[in-house]
Amino acid sequence: MSARASACLELEPDLIAAAIGEAPPSAAGRVRDHIDACRECRGAFERYRAIDGLVLGLRDEPVPADELEAARAGLRAKLADLRSRIVSYRVFTSPLGPILVARSEQGVTLVEYLARAGGIAVSRLRRAAEEDAMEGGAEMDALHRELTEYLGGRRKELGWPLDLRLAGSDFDRAVLQATGAVPYGAVTSYARIAADIGRPTATRAVAQALKRNPLAIAVPCHRIVGIAGDLMGYVGRRISLKQHLLGVEGVPTVEGPSDVRVARQSMYVLYPGDDEYCVPTCPSLTPARLGMATLFSSRRGVEGAGVSPCTTCRPDLHPIRR
Amino acid sequence: MAAHHAEILRYLRRVTARAAEADDLSQETFLRAYRAIGGLPPDANVRAWLFAIATNLARNHFRGESRRRAAQAAVRIAGGGGGREVAPDAETEFGEARALVDRVVMALPPKQRIAFTLRKVHDLDYPAIAESLQCSPESARANVFQALRKIRLELESQHLAGTELRR
User: Fold this and answer.
1) pTM (2 d.p.)
2) Among A87, A276, B104, B108, who pairs with A310 as Cys (CB 3.0-4.6 Å)?
3) Catalytic: which of A8, A38, A41, A221?
4) Can you give the pLDDT at residue A85?
5) Considering only CA atoms, which of B47, B4, B53 is closest in space to residue B25?
6) Is the pLDDT of residue B71 over 50?
7) Which of A13, A48, A75 sits opposite B152 (nearest CB)?
């Protein structure tokens, strides 16, 4: 490079800007005046313009079609793989505290009470290392609205497609599916779920599986109680949450000195396999089997299960008064 | 979003010099974008945002001196006639000049190469380039001008006069 005067060097940024058409009018004017007088800068100006024209040609240089197609196919495959693994989540506020809801392409994968306002950091989503979690956007709004309506008693079904990928085992999955079949406003026992999945002696294992339930509320493990109607446990020791959820569904509970129980004397009884339902004082009932029954808080609820009033105790004529 | 894939791929091929690396980086760009798009404001400039992700990945890729040396070695090899393909009209002076520009651009420091490519090839404005490079728009512009200046000096040292460069 030849030694150019300091005035020329100082002008160079404006000169470049003018040559590539980015200079404001005042700078362009200064450059015009200068290159009229300075042959060397006029040469530089011409070369910048030429370079600019040259590099504009780079804009039209495509990636070869076959290589582009190969790259696209690679991207499509990776995105499909990501979409199948990824779950999006949001932390919702609720009367029961913060609740994290996560969903995949297949359905809702996780409904979790967060112990404190720590977001995903305290969620089991963080611990499920194989999952790729991202914060969801507006597509999660409907879930929040439905959950809020449900917790407020204005909606009886969440109706969410569920993705049981976080269930720990086939046994857990079977327990969750059987639990999902217990209707709104009804309760049954761990022992009954064990019998339903063909493992009548696995009552404790059923309770453990429900303790791991990744889909709180959506898989209504709050409707599963002890054989004598005691609420047992929920999210650790948060029995009051379970009592609250049952209360929303109209299931009456009574608080004893050491535990909380479903008020079985105030619920309609349906034994497994029966096509009639009873009041709990019906002489046709075998009291020892009560633990295996499904108990309903309302006649409408039990009749929704497709059964008729018992012809002995006539719950249609003598409904339970509370 | 995927509509920008060809352009992002073209950009990465230009700044990384190696097609296979550019492929990987472009896929990674879109995987990251896909994960993060939920948090993007609705009025965001998706194109500029994708360029910013791609730039970030490319710069991380350049970091580490050994990799950078390897890239420059590749440029030197390309300068010797192998490796990176040049335009089919490379025999003409215009083609030679363009191939020379390609080589000079590849030998620029990453920040100048990226700024130049975003501005002159992909026509991004300086605020968008600044977002990609995490610098001020003035600094983005200075990097583009530095690149142009180096291209001019290199072309002059190769005795390719300006008039010969014109179409």
Assistant:
1) 0.61
2) A276
3) A221
4) 75
5) B53
6) no
7) A48
